Amino acid sequence: MQKPLHLLNGSFLIKNSSIFKRTNHNVPSSNMKHDLSKPTYDVVIFGASGFTGKYVVREALKFLNSSPNRNNSPLKTLALAGRNHSKLSEALAWAAPSHTTTIPFLLADTNDPPSLRRMVSQAKLILNCAGPFRHHGGPVVDACVEAGCDYLDICGESEFMERMEALYHQLAVEKGSLVISACGIDSIPAELGFLFNLKQWVSPAVVSQVEAYISLESDVRVVANSATYESAVLGVAEADKLRELRRSRGKTARPLIVGPAPTKAAIIEHQKKIGVWAVKLPSVDTSIVRRTLATLAHNPTGLQGINETPPQLQNRLHFWSTIKPAHFGMKIASKNLSNIFGFITVGFFIGTLSKFSLGRWLLLKFPQVFSLGWFRKGGPTEEEIAASSFKMWFVGRGFSRRVDREDVKPDVEIITRLKGPEFGYVSTSIILIQCALIVLKRRKDLPKGGIYTPGIVFGPTDLQERLQENGISFETVSKSVVK
């Protein structure tokens, strides 16, 4: 039987690549009562020793108040949390080989709810990097909501996110716990990129549909950690649970969109204007964007903050007044047609084999084989990550003026683009930390509590500007008349 884990009454001093253990009496012991009104740490990174977690730690340290030129950062105190003391130590040493600061460790395990309650009682904000979330995320959300602690994660699993919303939204509103999933590659680039494209449509022009094309690029080879692949396999295997959940919740609000729904396209598309081949991607991004639009249908001016300043109120009202809903779709793209056939092959393996237990075992046992080398245990090397980047195009189609007929074809096209460093770990870390800094700095401008998608919360904030300052760019590629 597993013994309960307790908070570690200690910390680590990182200096000149050495780690020195010392007593830190500011870290409460496991039997002390915690004052929830005065959390010890601004941020606790849970799952900090994981493959993505260590990149999040490295990014967070850039904005820790004790870092040079970061005196105005709202991140003044930080702790790392996970199951294993030694792995936390290794992750911190990797993330901060020359950093000088004291970073406490908290031991917590999703199989030990009391340890999670102790962890969240000491935090203003939990950053959860421990997946697969369908297996490990629920207890963390439960602990945060009960304690009124804010929560962000990097989840890309629709069933988990929608299940958490169904179970905890109302309680989170009452407790004042702001819970936002998908604050990484899933789904901030899709949400902010979509909103950025919509803002380019100036009246009387009106958008009808936006198709996103994601291209992962590398000077060597695009590789990802097998944990991401595992989440995809389990997501397909448990698709029936998501369908059942959605049926049980009934129909969601549908925003009013000008023009007809997009027609079914060919399996493989050649997008000549942006120079890529593409195939439909069954991505969580599509459902996240739809959930944001559904929330907006109920709240046309966005979500009211706890105690918004007049300038922020005006900014929110103006921002959402520029957003007109549109159909949204997602495709994975490549300049090379051979890669598209590779994507289709991997999709076939996952879609077919994940339906039965032996097939799932094979998929999870040999990720490198069934993903054609795109996923592997241990993840990419630092050199592979440094050589990688991403581009994400948004092709918006609409009308030069509002139309009332369904048979009218779009006559205007606006193409926008996001670009940034390696997608899965570097960009994810940048995005998550910038979201966290907004929550810390502008908490009164955000909703009191509840479970929301990132777009509806962060859309009217300065997240886009923050991402641009940290290496993720937004640009308008072209505006043209379509004949």
Task: Characterise the protein shown here.
α4 packs parallel to α5 and α11 packs across α12. The radius of gyration is 22 Å and the shape is globular. The strands form three sheets. A nine-stranded mixed beta sheet has the order 2-1-5-4-3-6-7-8-17, with helices on both faces. Strands 11-12-13-9-15-16-18 form a seven-stranded mixed beta sheet. Strands 10-14 form a two-stranded parallel ribbon. It has helices at residues 51-62, 85-95, 113-120, 133-147, 158-175, 188-199, 226-237, 239-249, 284-298, 310-321, 337-353, 357-365, 367-370, 382-386, 423-441, 454-458, 463-469, and strands at 11-15, 18-22, 41-46, 78-82, 101-107, 123-128, 150-153, 178-180, 206-218, 224-225, 268-271, 276-280, 327-334, 375-376, 388-399, 412-421, 450-452, 473-481. The protein is of the alpha/beta class. Residues 1-36 have low confidence and may be disordered. The longest helix is centred in the C-terminal third of the chain and has 19 residues, at 423-441.
Can you give keywords for this protein?
483 residues, alpha/beta, nine-stranded mixed β-sheet, 23% strand, globular
Describe, in short, the structure shown.
This protein has 483 residues and is α/β, with parallel strands linked by helices.
